[in-house]
Specification:
The protein has 204 residues and is mainly α. The protein contains 10 helices and no strands. Helix 1 crosses helix 4, helix 4 packs antiparallel against helix 5 and helix 6 crosses helix 9.
Length: 204
């Protein structure tokens, strides 16, 4: 059996941390449970990351990086509000099935009792807010809808909805009510088409 390199050990710990947080929740995640899942000594959690929370944040960073790359192409395809709602629905389902929503929401919940996590979570949410804002600006920017509901405000609302829906899925066992919200958005989007028509610029 070959000896693992430091980089390989870090990778195993990051993957194990993500699996453990998804399956056990923050309360059930410790250096011991992560190390057991990674099949390494628990001291390596502290050697490579300095503690459990930094390791969990590294796992969140890895997941976010992968998702940002994957979803950028899908979002770039959307040209209308209806298409954007369709893509957003697909993203939500993929995040739910893949466990990213659980990673993010577990750490958000943990930050209530651990204030030192708050700044780190906010820092990691900002790129997603900017991503949503830029997408909305591209799709509805310069339209009456954008003047009524600025993309930046809608981006914050989207992140809030994202977290709220995830928490609600724990109560909505068959996801029927959650899916109904996306279906509602899909019905409303075509009716808002006139509000997304860009206004001609006034001549100077």
């Amino acid at each position: 059996m070959t000896k693992q390199t430091g980089a390989e050990t870090r990778e195993r710990l990051i993957e194990a941390a993500a699996r453990t947080l998804r399956s056990e929740g923050y309360a059930g995640t410790s250096a011991r449970t992560i190390a057991k899942a990674a099949e390494v000594n628990s001291a390596l959690v502290f050697y490579h990351f300095g503690g459990v929370d930094p390791l969990l944040l590294a796992a969140l960073d890895r997941s976010s990086e992968q998702r940002m790359t994957a979803y950028q192409a899908a979002v770039d395809e959307a040209r209308t509000l209806e298409e954007l709602v369709e893509v957003a629905t697909g993203i939500y389902r993929a995040d739910l099935e893949g466990g990213h929503i659980t990673l993010f929401s577990e750490l958000v919940g943990a930050s209530i009792a651990r204030p030192e996590l708050r700044e780190e979570i906010v820092k990691r949410a900002e790129p997603w807010i900017a991503f949503i804002e830029q997408t909305l600006e591209r799709v509805i920017g310069g339209s009456p809808l954008a003047k009524l509901m600025p993309p930046r405000d809608l981006a914050y609302a989207s992140i809030t909805f994202y977290l709220g829906v995830n928490l609600f899925t724990h109560l909505d066992a068959d996801r029927s009510r959650t899916e109904a919200l996306f279906a509602l958005a899909g019905r409303v989007a075509p009716r808002a088409r006139l509000l997304t028509v860009r206004l001609p610029r006034r001549r100077a």
